[in-house]
Design brief:
Strand order of the largest sheet of chain A: 1-7-6-5-4-2-3
Chains: A alpha/beta, B alpha/beta, C alpha+beta
Number of strands of chain B: 14
Helix content of chain B: 25-40%
Number of domains of chain A: 2
Largest sheet of chain A: 7 strands, mixed
Strand order of the largest sheet of chain B: 2-8-7-6-5-3-4
CATH topology of the largest domain in chain A: Aspartate Aminotransferase, domain 2
Strand content of chain B: 5-15%
CATH architecture of the largest domain in chain A: 3-Layer(aba) Sandwich
Number of helices of chain A: 13
Largest interface: A-B, 197 and 203 residues
Number of domains of chain B: 2
Structural class of chain B: alpha/beta
CATH topology of the largest domain in chain B: Aspartate Aminotransferase, domain 2
CATH class of the largest domain in chain A: Alpha Beta
Distance between the termini of chain A: 46 Å
Shape of chain B: globular
CATH superfamily of the largest domain in chain A: Type I PLP-dependent aspartate aminotransferase-like (Major domain)
Radius of gyration of chain B: 25 Å
Largest sheet of chain B: 7 strands, mixed
CATH class of the largest domain in chain B: Alpha Beta
Oligomer: heterotrimer
Order of helices and strands of chain B: HHEHHHEHEHEEHEEEEEHHEHEEEH
Helix content of chain A: 25-40%
Number of strands of chain A: 13
Amino acid sequence: MRAPLGTTGLILNEPLLWERGRPGRRGASLPAADVPPSPMDPELCGDGPDFPDLSEVDLVRHFTRLSTWNYGVDTGFYPLGSCTMKYNPKTHERQAALKGFAAAHPLLPAPLCQGALQLIWELERDLAAITGMDAVSLQPAAGAHGELTGMLVIHAHHQHQGHQRSKIIIPDTAHGTNPASAALCGYRPVAVASGPEGVLEPSAIAAVMDEETAGIMVTNPNTLGLFETHIREIAAIVHDKGGLVYADGANLNAVMGIVDMGAIGVDVIHLNLHKTFATPHGGGGPGSGPICVRRRLEPYLPVPRVAKAGERFHLEADRPLSIGRMGAFHGHFGVMVKAYSYIRSMGADGLRRASELAVLNANYVKERLKKDFHLAYDRPCMHECVFSDADQAPFKVTTLDMAKRLMDYGFHPPTIYFPLVVHGAIMIEPTETESKADLDCFVAAMQAIAEEARTEPETVHSAPHRTKVRRLDEVLAARKPCLIG
Amino acid sequence: MRYLPHTPEEIQEMLGVVGVESLDQLFLSIPPSCRRQSDLNLPEALSEWALDERMDRLAARTAVAPEVKVFLGAGSYDHFIPAAVDALAGRSEFLTAYTPYQPEISQGTLQAIYEYQTLACHLMGTEVATASHYDGATALAEALLMAIRKTDRRRVAVSRLIHPHYRQVVATYLHPAGYEIVELPYRSDGTTDLSAVAGEGDLAAVALQSPNFFGCIEDLAAGAATAHGVGAMLVAGFTEALAYGLLKSPASQGAEIVAGEGQSLGLARSFGGPGLGMLGTRQVHMRSLPGRLVGKTVDQEGRQGFVLTLATREQHIRRERATSNICTNNSHCALRAVMYMAALGKTGFRELAVLNHDKAAYLKQALAAAGHRIPFSRATFNEFVVDFGASFEPVYRRLQEAGIVAGLPLARYYPELEGGYLLCATETASRQDLDRLVKEVSR
Amino acid sequence: MKEIDALNLPEDVRYAEDHEWLRPSEDAARIGISDYAQDQLGDIVYVELPAVGRRLTKGEEFGTVESVKAVSSLYMPVGGEVTAVNEQLAEAPELVNTDPYGQGWMIEVKVTDVAEVAALMDRAAYLKALGG
């Protein structure tokens, strides 16, 4: 085995931004004033914001040092379940920075922005092909925003049918955004428990589905990493009562080229371009959360829509059934350029192969670790697997302790304490871009931690030991919030 | 494929550990009726250089400077971005990190966002600011929902001079839950007519934008007094953050909630997104804020550090009772913004704001001198409305073909302003560009 | 987490099933949460309390209590009008952890129906309900 990744290195301290610099320094140059000054009414003027004055060197050192305190996908393995932290190709940054994309004004007359409109139009069609749906809107800015957009589409559909509904079915494995998005549409969530196999039972859905229920929100594959095997039957039950099936596509990375979402009864699905389509997470955004719908829901999609007449593209805003606008302009176009680059680089075979290898990697890790950690559901998984800390409980070592200890070994921890249905959950999503050698390294670290939990639990309790800061006082942060300096 | 590291031998070895014979067998848990019957219908995969070629060709079909002179603002502004901002923001430790849920290995993002929150407060005059939202439009919608929660009222008054797209987003967010929007008209000087507010008894908020969509600077203090007179909050919006290098901050004039777009702060226009939704308020309303917040704390050895905090407001804990369904921010955009604000500094930001005002004022005066009517008398920042007359459209088209976009036609948003165009001039427009525009539209 | 026999369960208060306590009094019965409840919640970071003057019925939510990663609702053990709230908790929510029956009290109410007080559990009944 290779030497362990985690080590100590020289980490430089760096003060807060405003503790650097001196008034009068300048980190950017301004163009010369080639027009006469035109004084503004002093009544309207303020003093200007109190920003620190830094030189360009101050600025560069400050943020370079800060960056070294971060762990990114480029640093190492990032097995965050449900987040699909795959490698973000470098070519994406080149494409998004092309002047014709980066400097394009969103309100350019259509003849002057044919390239941008064509890219949106083609990406919509690519995503429709990948999901098996009929129409796509790229306007939503993030997964949760796509989910809200999808719920608004369902709301508009029922409104148009002449009878608004009051409830929506949400399984207990759902992401927390599901109930929050439903609430914005005035829908009351109806919780349904998954069955003993970790998947939804049609009988449980039939028991609660009625004509006051707008539909169901399902994540498939679900947050336990399992495929909802009864999805077609469940969709039929929901459709029978006039409801719609909303799918959270957070886990699409498991089934590209394998499952046709349209064919299994899904009416609306949102995707996360920052997960499945390899655009960088940026420390928490910007993402992009397009929604894909069946033909009959297309009239409700947000405006404007990109349309094609002959070889020319234009924007269409006059769509009376549309839910309206979800953002100031066309969505996160800069992110779309990257996802488009990814899809065109991978092609149909590459995307399918990505899903196959993502599932292979997850099953490999599951098999290698199931002797050392308790497996919540010992079934073949999709692209992620869920362990728990049950085997470490006798030594009073928790999931949090082990997650922190993983940092000392040079890995980002998995998703922890989610899904809520598994007590002390450890949710591992390796993604397809990790090699067997890197997975073996991670497995060895996890096994070493399991051993430490038995033999020296204090080392695990007090982890991490090698990071820039140790465990932080989150209670203090919440009791006495200090949000600005 | 260069992103997939597995060799055929490794795949076989791993399949052996899993206990299946082929990759296809990994999917046996998916019922056959749910499986795709055919391959994905996508164009053939491109090599890296073939991709470059394709993208270069697409990008070339969009009009940008210097070939085309674009005098458009209206929520997306052309400002110079220092190379240092691109280089620093492009560092992959920032770019390829997830949300900083594990603070011990995310201090870079966390400290930078704390610094962003601080400078954002200086800009808006607020006591707290969130770690950012998707864009100015969604930030405004979230601000109005926040006012609705705080006041327990169901109606909001929204100025007609708020960016028309922002008003559409507000309507999309507010209508399904049954909240009512009252539209406030505008006066002949180009500012909002507040006289209807006094007669509205149960408003949660009055929303103004300053500079407004016509570029005119609103009297926010009067807006605050009027709103407070009926027990409503003043929500102040903006699309051009740079204006506050020169103008009094919104919160200092009495706005309880400030919500706007920060694209001007070092973000490329990028055909409209990603942008930066900025949202701030007073300390007392902190726990009603939607979205993510970073706070300062200490580690177990007493060293300063930063964490995501007040998470109990958020969807993953409070679920359907959360302050919003939002579960990300536009973190990387906020990072660029703090770098940009720091690069300019107090001194540079002020100078840049003054320069923007001077350029637009020069253009406005030159157009007026050439005989064009400036319909609104109120002071403006870096954009303004000019009346080119109802017969201008053919000229506009001719200029478009000649590589000049002579502003935004307003009639599509304000039918009563046929012949009205919204023009923007920033520091990137040279005097020569401005003179040429005046000459071309006056021919 | 404390063992059940280590819990502080005073005799002078009555207990509700949702782990609130009430100290009976003619005009101003104080209400808070039990040692068991604060121990389960962990470090309390924020307490949201109702406006003085609000009338609430038995079982109605009167506020929320937050730890770093959880929010719990607080329910009225009896119906009544809120006559005072513990302002100190705004600055020092940790009092609910350190002194749940003393300085960590939450609201004072004028009880609507004294029969509802009588229906609450005494120490022995509450202890039994906790499985001790």
